[in-house]
Each structure stands twice: as structure tokens, then as C-alpha cells.
């Protein structure tokens, strides 16, 4: 937990104003606070308790996997637990529970040396799979999707992790390369093709795969591809370009849930990575245009709306309140060495706010720190630059002496509130919605090791994991 306290001096009537605590989400390596014991109440029923004796609910039984140990999913915290020796225990017996994995997705697997089980949207589904270098490439006909169960056969004992759908392929056909052995592989609906019927030939950096002498697949960039990367095949075309079906394979939803969750969608002119609602971009997200720039911020019903930041590849910036894809409201534009700040209408400044030095070394050091645009510095080294409303922080960037930095919206109590982005000095990051200084609503977090937590937050805690 990181607590921020700063004094606003004469600007705020010499009163002390405290930022609400910004909590650091739990580490995936932390096992504290989870269920540590069980009591058997029926043949498949039990009570799970944490270290304080509190009952943990909203659980889902998984598979025994040819053992007496029952695996259990805590659907609230997305944690998988093992209830050792549960199967043959008598009613009323107690035992210990251990954490197998934290923060698994709704698509996940459990495994041990005896067996495994794969779940899609928390439902146990079975279909066709093949083992490729210790990972299962698993086709599920019910969803017409191929998943990667990465390194599932490399666990020495019990293991669990999220599984991920491979990029879209209309035929669920994928290829990979084993660079060390100079070999290729093609997998269709969870089965390898019959290599006795296949032959290959080179075409520049591509590899052409022939089936029974007929050129069938193109593996683009084959000779430059790293090992064990699974890519959709391209149906062969003599021109070397993708056919209509392969064009579809490089566009569309390529990762996650692009309907009502967090997902990545590839467009002809770029890609979007963020939250979705009813099949439309909605909430916090990033859209990247190739050789142009990217927008990071709020979306409403497929439109850039609310607080957001456009960062051009040439480092020009457009920051502020968006509506209909343009600045409409308070904003700042940076074009080369030219800065403009004020009120914008359809992307053009309608009321400009001057930004000038006040001659003060602390307090309001530049601009108007009452109801326009200014810079305020505190004696402890903290500073804020942005828009003020009634002498309070309203929208802008607050930089802490520690190196932490927040950019976004504030409420009238100077707390992070609305859409905002927090950059921790150790490399951790949170982007999304805030309420009274805490993560609240849909948001994206990664720690300093880039371990992600994405979904719905409440009062600083992730309550609905979406990826």
C-alpha cells in the first residue's frame, strides 16, 4: 500500500489534503490470506477456511486427475487450490489446502503426471489435441477455437495456468518452426497433418507446403521465425499474397474477449487492445495506428470519449477530454515546440489559457492555479501541472518526488477520480477508472515484472478478472 500526503499551502487555505491510498494489487507469488484448511461435509461437499477461520465461498470443484486430491477453483479470486487426501476422507474429516495457482483466466488447465483437464469459460470441455514441445495445441469444436496450453507437460507435479486462444484461423490450421532441427509443423484442428503426404519448397523467406504434390500452405517468414511460435497458415496463392480466407486470419479478435471483456482486435489500419462492451470498444483501451501514433484512454460505444492521450510517433501529443474522436473540452496539444492549452471544440482551441511564470519558487510557479491552467510545486519536491477548478486539482499530471506519477482526472478533494494512469517508479503501471483515489471500475494493471491483472476493481481490489 502506498499512501500519499501533501500540503497545499496558501493555495488551499494552508490545509492538509491527503490522497487516498493507492493499493498495490496482490502479487501472484503471495499465498497469504487464502483457504488453508477444509472440512468435508459430504461426498463432494466441503467448507474452506482461510488462516483466520473465515469461510471462503463461490468455489467450483475441478477434477481429481487420478488421485485422492480434489482441485478447487475460487471463482472470485481466480485461485486454484488443492485439497489433499479429500476423496476418500470420511465426512467430518479435516485437512490442509494449498494454493496451486493464482489469477487463472476463465480459460485454464490443471495437470499432474497422471492426467489433465482443460476448462473454457470455466466449463470442462474435451476435444482433440497434440503435444508440441511440451505444450498442448488443443482444438475445441464447441467454440471452434484452438488454444495453447503452454508447457503443460513440463510440470514435475501438479500445475495450473491460463490457456490462450491462438490467433484466428478460419480453418483452425497453424504452423510452427523448430529452428534447432530445421523442421516445420502444421496442425489442423488439434491434429498434425500426415507428413508422409507432405513435401516443401522454399520461396524467399517463406516455406511452401505441398500435400500430395499440390501447393497447399504458405508459411510466411518461415526462415526468420523463432521456434515454437504458432501462427495461422496462409492458403497458397501463386502471387504470394494471402487469399480472402487468409486475410480474415490476420484481422478480427486475435486475443481475449472482444465482446464483453478485455481483448485485442486487429483492424486493417491498426489494432485495439482494451475493454469491450456489447462488441464495441468501451472503457479504457489503446488503439495503435501503424506509422502514426496511438490513443490511450477512455472509449464509449466505439468512440474516443472522455479523458485520453494521443501520442504521435513523432512525440506530438493531444491530451484532454475527447468527444466524437476529437478534443472537446479542456485539453493540451503539443506540436513540435508549440504548446496550446485551454478549451477545445472539435479539435481546435476556442479559449486559450496563457502559461507564464509567476516568479515563485514554490506554490503556484506558473499560470493560473485557480480556474485555468498552471503549475504548482510543493516544498517536498512534488509538483502538479494541469487544469485547476476552484483552486483544486482538476485534470493533469501529478509528479511525486519519489518518481511516481499520475496523469488523469481528480475530484474536488484532490483525489484521483475518473480515468487516469499511474506510473510507479519501479515500472509498475495502472490505467483505467478511479474512485476517490483507488482503482475502481474497469482497469489494467501490471507489476514491475509485467505480470498483468485486468478486469473490474472495487475499492482497490480486483474482483472480476477478465484476463
How are the SSEs ordered, and which strands pair?
Elements: E1 2-7, E2 16-22, E3 35-40, E4 46-50, E5 55-56, E6 59-61, E7 70-74, E8 79-83, E9 94-101, E10 108-111, E11 116-120, E12 123-124, E13 128-132, E14 135-140, E15 145-149, E16 159-162, E17 164-165, E18 173-178, E19 183-188, E20 191-192, E21 198-203, E22 206-211, E23 214-219, E24 231-232, E25 234-235, H1 244-249, E26 252-256, E27 262-267, E28 270-277, E29 280-289, E30 293-300, E31 303-312, E32 317-323, E33 326-335, E34 338-345, E35 348-352, E36 363-367, E37 373-377, E38 383-389, E39 392-399, E40 405-410, E41 416-423, E42 429-435, E43 438-446, E44 452-458, E45 461-465
Antiparallel strand pairs: 1-2, 3-4, 3-9, 4-5, 6-7, 7-8, 8-9, 10-11, 10-16, 11-12, 13-14, 14-15, 15-17, 18-19, 18-24, 19-20, 21-22, 22-23, 23-25, 26-27, 27-28, 28-29, 29-30, 30-31, 31-32, 32-33, 33-34, 34-35, 36-37, 37-38, 38-39, 39-40, 40-41, 41-42, 42-43, 43-44, 44-45
Describe this structure in words.
The protein is flat. The chain has five domains: 35-101, no CATH class; 108-162, no CATH class; 173-249, no CATH class; 252-352, Histone H3 K4-specific methyltransferase SET7/9 N-terminal domain (Single Sheet); 353-465, Histone H3 K4-specific methyltransferase SET7/9 N-terminal domain (Single Sheet). It has 467 residues and is mainly beta. The strands form eight sheets. The protein has a ten-stranded antiparallel β-sheet with strand order 26-27-28-29-30-31-32-33-34-35, with no helix packed on it. The protein has one helix and 45 strands.
